[in-house]
Design goal:
This protein is an alpha/beta fold. The chain has 3 domains: 127 residues, HUPs (Rossmann fold); 250 residues, Alpha-Beta Barrel (TIM Barrel), CATH 3.20.20.60; 34 residues, no CATH class. The chain contains 18 helices and 17 strands. The strands form 4 sheets. Strands 6-9-10-11-14-15-16-17 form an 8-stranded parallel β-barrel, surrounded by 8 helices. Strands 3-2-1-4-5 form a 5-stranded parallel sheet, with helices on both faces. Helix 13 packs across helix 14. The N and C termini lie far apart (65 Å). The protein binds sulfopyruvate and magnesium ion (MG). The site of magnesium ion (MG) has 6 residues, from helix 9.
């Protein structure tokens, strides 16, 4: 009787191939038929930045590597589901998972393999080359406008909720790009940036009423683009005159911006969070649909998104009014909708999302929980929200800190106290910006 060949399982992202990975493939294939568990974008998205290549592109590369017998999708970051499904005789992995954020993954694997009578093979980590060091080098080159532009679409389809934070200059761009926390062994970071009209205007000492013109805002957005690779959603205010909106869309696409959000208001725009305290006029459904269509007609890439923002709840109108408008905006071609409210309870947003989803299962919903900030991303995702925007927090955090520092200098007629209490050390600021120091 011919003995059945053993199955050897190797989990892989397979985005950047290098000799260390080829070494594991070679070693693994010595034990039997090597089955690659190829991580899907969805499996990766909550733990790491999305790969440069799509799943299909990665699959195409890996199935052509000598020693690979088969490829199966690994839909979760955890190996457990696939190990139970395919019951491999061996699993092979680099020994670098013994420490750091992947340690809990290893513990799970050891347990399941022991239960199923399989073996875990750990291959010494190949020194001097790793995916993360190659990735850091690629990232330091930046990103092309088209790769940045299309990345928002991929994030929406692979994450339960996409996490966006405002950036109004290069420094806040760096914060949005690089800030990470580790929670229960998982890395968490922001997925992209919001070019907010409120923070763009406020940081110039101007009101948020479209008095800072588009050219100026785009010029300054370049500072964020220069130092980041993540997608940007542009706050397009009302979108301006219908005749101008198509030009705005083309300009944004050329810069590699992924989406513009325009709000259904006309006339002098004021910030939404004034609610009914400011005179603000909503556009007619027909008028706003025409503007959406003008934007969609103008775009030249496939992936750029025109997102329609509904201000009914801000204007004190009903959830039904918002629903009627948003369904019409989607029918006119909006790629996503943003529903806004300044109500602290969040009940109106929850009711809107739930009812919107009854009729429309897929069109992405964007929420800006500035006032109803008690809800977690997980809760918003349960309501049906796909993108959460933290719209003004970096600027709101910086301003009070700067005021305290300025007051302290005035109070003490010197800067000793301010430096000690409110300032980062000089050494830290000198080294804050990557590439400052000459080697
Ligand atoms: C912005 O950030 O400029 C926005 C969101 O449009 S809000 O300020 O809440 O209107
Ligand atoms: Mg705005």
């Amino acid at each position: 009787m011919v003995e059945k060949r053993k199955i050897v399982y190797l989990g892989m992202i397979g985005d950047i191939m290098h000799p260390g990975l080829i070494n594991i493939i070679n070693e693994g294939s010595k034990y039997g038929d090597l089955m690659i568990g190829l991580f899907t974008d969805k499996a990766i998205a909550n733990h790491r930045r999305l790969p440069y290549l799509t799943y299909e592109q990665r699959k195409n590369v890996i199935e052509n590597i000598k020693g690979v017998a088969s490829i199966v999708p690994q839909e979760e970051w955890s190996y457990v589901e696939n190990l139970k499904k395919y019951k491999p005789d061996y699993i092979i992995h680099g020994d670098d998972w013994k420490e750091g954020p992947d340690k809990f993954i290893r513990d799970e694997v050891l347990k399941v393999m022991a239960q199923q009578g399989g073996k875990v093979i750990e291959i010494p980590y190949t020194k001097g080359i790793s995916t993360s060091s190659l990735k850091a080098e690629i990232d330091s080159l930046g990103v092309t406008p088209s790769a940045r532009l299309s990345s928002l679409h991929r994030l929406i389809s692979s994450k339960s909720i996409v996490r966006i934070i405002e950036s109004h200059n290069g420094l806040t761009g760096l914060i949005a790009e690089h800030t990470k926390v580790e929670i229960n062994g998982q890395e968490r970071e922001f997925d992209g940036m919001w070019a907010s009209s409120l923070t763009d205007s406020t940081s110039k000492g101007k009101p948020d009423n479209e008095s800072v013109d588009l050219t100026t805002r785009l010029h300054d957005l370049n500072d964020t683009l220069e130092v980041t690779t993540k997608p940007v959603i542009f706050d397009g205010d009302t979108g301006g005159r219908i005749e101008h909106f198509g030009f705005t869309v083309r300009t944004l696409e050329r810069l590699g911006i992924s989406a513009v959000i325009i709000e259904d208001k006309v006339g002098l725009k004021q910030n939404s969070l004034f609610g009914t305290d400011a005179v603000q006029t909503q556009d007619s459904i027909e008028g706003f649909c025409n503007k959406i269509q003008a934007g969609k007609r103008a775009q030249i890439t496939q992936d750029f998104m025109v997102i329609a923002r509904c201000e009914s709840l801000i204007a004190g109108k009903s959830v039904d009014d918002a629903l009627e408008r948003c369904h019409a905006y989607v029918a006119a071609g909006a790629d996503a909708i943003m529903i806004h409210s300044k109500n602290k309870s969040g009940e109106d947003i929850k009711a809107f999302c739930t009812q919107f989803r009854e009729k429309n299962a897929f069109t992405p919903i964007v929420a800006v929980p500035t006032t109803y900030n008690q809800f977690t991303e997980e809760e918003l995702a349960q309501w049906g929200v796909n993108i959460v925007i933290y719209a003004n927090h970096l600027l709101r955090a910086a301003y009070p800190a700067m005021i305290k520092c300025a007051e302290s200098i005035l109070r003490h007629s010197r800067c000793l106290e301010a430096s000690e209490e409110y300032c980062m050390p000089i050494k830290q600021i000198l080294n804050l910006i990557p590439g400052t120091k000459k080697q």
